[in-house]
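anyone seen this seq b4? input:
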Amino acid sequence: MGGSSSSQQAAQSETPTFFTQEELNKLKSEFETGGVEKVQPLLKKKVIGLKNTELNIAVTGDTGAGKSTFINAMRGLCSEDEGAAAVGTTETTMEPTGYSHPNLPNVRYWDLPGTGSPRFTAGSYLRKMQFQKYDFFIIVSACRFRENDANLAKEIKRLGKKFYFVRSKIDADLYCMQRERKEFDEVAEMEKIRSDCVSGLGKAGIPNPTVFLISSFEPDRYDFNRLKEALEGDLTNVKKRAFILALPIESVEIVQKKNEILKKDIWMFATLSGGVGAIPIPGLSLACDIGVLIGAIIHFQKCLGLDDASLHRLANRTGKPVEELKAAVKPHLLGEITPDIIVRIGWGTAVVTVSALEVALNFVPVIGSIFGAGSSFLMTLKILRDALKDLTENAERVVRAAFEIN
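predicted toks r here
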């Protein structure tokens, strides 16, 4: 894999709150001169910026390697779902085609034409693909990696970007081997395939490459989780956030990762909703901007795969009736989130005993200003914490029902 010194510098300048140190200094300075009212515009800008974070992932390889199926799997889609990448045994991609995540449209996977397509020579391919626009590259092959793949990786490295070798359709290969042999050792056969790929790439000038063996139809098996962890680990703070939130809900671990990220957003939503300009809400002992509050809860709901469209997509992928998945969710979380729902559920109705330390643990960088925003902030903070906890627990139940996890 290739690296970039600029991305490393960016990572060093970011903090666990998704703010750069410069942004944190600005927040503190604005509070000192104008209090919470002056902090709110900065937070609103940050929330919008995080929502609009772009992540562009290029997927390339020879015709028939399974690029489109891989792109669909990474977005939690089947080939028949709306917005799915076209799948075929012939070259269905003639130019770079972007496929947005269904809930996070600024996260895009780009299906690039196969490197062996007769429409492109090796030299023109690199120019026409506009390689600089992508955050990293995934080179897919359904058999041995070829000279074109190695040359592509060298050029990506020269440009200072990262690349990953993915050997696809491993399930089909192992199935054929198992049928042909009386004695079959899946782990040993996988290592033979991996060693063959590594050896071929080494001879082509790629020393010690990492090769991920995957099946796009079985994202919980083989090296698929290792691949996701590698992609996540190599991204900088804000880009990593976008990548994790865009992952399909396929394990309890992914749900928990999303929960940890969304927790870090709560204090910002609470400040925007429960600070200056808040209005009283009937049935709740607080004043807040109800649009911000409900918008945050809907955002949590979609990221955790509990909106109606996400549940239908999960049902299609797993072959489970959507009614079975919905049965794992509390009924009040399946419909529209309204002020009445918040009151009936009782989010935030317990005695507010949020201490300054607890606020700090929620990654509030300007504790003095935010904690001083008053009871409306604290109550809004508790509503959002309760809502996220409730949604996370329900998302975990859905995962267990969908993938039959005990």
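Residues 312 and 384 are 26 Å apart (CA to CA). Residues 2-16, 350-363, 367-373 have pLDDT under 50 and may be disordered. kinda curious what u guys think
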